[in-house]
Amino acid sequence: MKPAPFAYLRPSSLEEALAALAGEQGAKVLAGGQSLVPLLNMRLAAPSMLIDINALPDLGHVRVAEDGVRVGALARHAEVLASSEAERAQPLLGMALRHVAHPTIRNRGTTVGSIVHADAAAEMPMVLRLLDGSVDVASVRGRRTIPAAELFAGPLESTLAHDEVAVEAFFPGLAPDAGVAFQEIARRHGDYALVGVAAHVETDGDAVTRASLGFVSVSDVPVVVDVTHALGDPAAKALAELDPADDIHASAAYRAHLVKVLAPRVLAAATDHARSRAG
Ligand code: FAD
């Protein structure tokens, strides 16, 4: 299929993009187009105007500072994945990005676009949520920072206002006594996960002082479950809070089974990771 007709604007400054977005109720931002263009072609979205942000300056950065990694709105998944500094500061970025689609899609799709697209089957919204990151957004009304815990409103729905552009995502760095791990099950490598689980663990010597799990494809929004007091059976605690659903790819029962298999495995891997970093 072909998209419904739309106007197209390629602004060369953020101010111009924000003014256009504020002035056109039916407008949508176009970043890498790897989610939006298929939606247009299937006529599941029919914006009156596309505001292509690819010519905006100063948004392609992957910047590592003491507190973590800042990813600009035009940094492609592949560029974030290629940054060894980013991987050192927050290893979960690389662990998860390797599972995001295929190289061709990662070369064009943006990590920030994936986050604000808010697909509960996507890896990076969950990673941002698990690490307690945030997104900086801009509009003609000014700038604000949205913590990941307040970013995901529902299936494919973020809490950005219509006239806001996400300019940067912030992923906190990994503390010295902390560890992370990620695993997912997909039919083919690069497909969306049937279930994906990440773990973030903090340790003090041999003791695990904090442990949380983030889940992909088992609820409407990215969900994080604190399993600090359920280290013996993290899957039972998680399943009490998750809502796996049947779809054409897998049954709810199979997804629950994958949670039971992956949760303890990923928790153990993150604990080993923390101990190897501390030791
Ligand atoms: P676009 O498609 O340009 O935009 C997506 C949405 O976000 C639109 O609503 C757009 O208006 C909005 N948006 C984008 N950027 C901004 C911004 N800066 N400010 C405000 N709004 C913005 N993703 C995964 O996570 N895991 C996978 O396994 C996976 N597999 C894929 C397989 C295929 C075959 C394809 C085609 C895609 C797959 N993707 C997967 C999606 C891919 O990761 C996309 O890159 C990502 O979802 C969206 O990023 P984008 O830059 O392409 O955004």
UniProtKB/TrEMBL annotation:
Residues 1-176 form the FAD-binding PCMH-type domain. PANTHER family: XANTHINE DEHYDROGENASE SUBUNIT C-RELATED. The keyword Oxidoreductase applies. It comes from the Bacteria. InterPro entries: CO_DH_flav_C, CO_DH_flav_C_dom_sf, Diverse_Substr_Oxidored, FAD-bd_PCMH, FAD-bd_PCMH-like_sf, FAD-bd_PCMH_sub1, FAD-bd_PCMH_sub2, Mopterin_DH_FAD-bd. The lineage of its organism: Bacteria, Bacillati, Actinomycetota, Actinomycetes, Propionibacteriales. Keywords: FAD, Flavoprotein, Oxidoreductase. It comes from Nocardioides pinisoli. SUPFAM superfamilies: CO dehydrogenase flavoprotein C-terminal domain-like (SSF55447), FAD-binding/transporter-associated domain-like (SSF56176). This is FAD binding domain-containing protein. Signal peptide: none annotated. The keyword Transcription does not apply.
